[in-house]
Amino acid sequence: MSRKALIAANWKMYKTPTEAEAFVKAFLPLVAGHTRDEIALFPSPVLLPAVIAACKGSQVAVGAQNIYFAEEGAYTGETSIGQLIAVGGTHTLIGHSERRQYFGETDEIVNKKLHTALKHKIVPVVCIGEVLAEREAGKTEDVLKTQVTGAFAGINGLSPEAISLIVIAYEPVWAIGTGKTATPEMAADAHRIVRAEVAKLLGADVANKMRILYGGSVKPDNATALLSQEEIDGALVGGASLKPDSFTAIVKY
Ligand code: 13P
């Protein structure tokens, strides 16, 4: 089963609009004609209009790092899916470990956000992953199964078209921003656990088609080893996505 890889940049809380535009201006020529993989950028909400305008006419998609599950209302500080769509965004991260860790996002919230994204045909990149203490206690498999089951509650009633949009990103929390990467084999093992759980919930066919990205200290020098694993269908890149040359090197692994 060949799945088209998605190489995604999570810029987190970095860059001004001017810096973001400069990135895109330098980056697009470097990936011109690159169609082997899908490419997406996830900037902060205030950068979205500038980045979307700069990427117009290219193959590079742009999405939000987070959306709220309610359609609109008195939710100070949040971004709605309608606002994302209105500025031309097509993707969103959901349940990034930093959202879970610092902003109290639970599997239940992740599930609500996933339903909202799918209702509006926005590609959701659902982030899961164990913390170090969980891995050391031998609980990785349980944690991943619980996160997948929680995120996907009620999803099996949706249309096949909606379900086909879902992307999962496996990001072991101990590998994020630490320079410690899961070995390709560790990542592939985790991906197999996740895919088996998706198969249980949504069927083998859906599971075989679903892309599972790896994230956590992906760099130009480890991208090839990770991405040549059959089970790894792309990367969600933090630090190394901030510079056009290093992100390009990962895109072109
Ligand atoms: P780093 O690549 O900086 O480890 O970040 C990974 C990440 O959190 C991507 O969402």
Distance between the termini: 20 Å
- Radius of gyration over all CA atoms, rounded: 17 Å
How helical, in percent, are the residues? 40-55%
The profile of the biggest β sheet is: 8 strands, parallel, barrel
Low-confidence segments, given as residue ranges, are none
CATH topology: TIM Barrel
Please, how many helices? Answer: 12
Give the CATH H-level superfamily.
Aldolase class I
* Overall average pLDDT: 97
Order of strands side by side in the largest beta sheet? 1-2-3-4-5-6-7-8
Q: Beta fraction of the residues? A: 15-25%
The CATH architecture comes to Alpha-Beta Barrel
Bound molecules: 1,3-dihydroxyacetonephosphate
What class, by secondary structure content? alpha/beta
> How does the overall form come out from the CA principal axes?
globular
How would you characterize the overall build of this protein?
The protein has helices at 17-30, 48-55, 81-86, 97-103, 107-119, 132-136, 140-151, 160-164, 184-202, 204-209, 220-227, 244-251, and strands at 6-10, 38-42, 60-64, 91-94, 123-128, 167-170, 211-215, 234-237. It has twelve helices and eight strands. Strands 1-2-3-4-5-6-7-8 form an eight-stranded parallel β-barrel, surrounded by six helices. It has one domain (6-251): Aldolase class I (TIM Barrel). By secondary structure, the protein is α/β, with parallel strands linked by helices. Helix 2 links the parallel strand 2 and strand 3. The chain is globular. It binds 1,3-dihydroxyacetonephosphate. 1,3-dihydroxyacetonephosphate is lined by residues 10, 96, 171, 176-177, 215-218, 236-240.
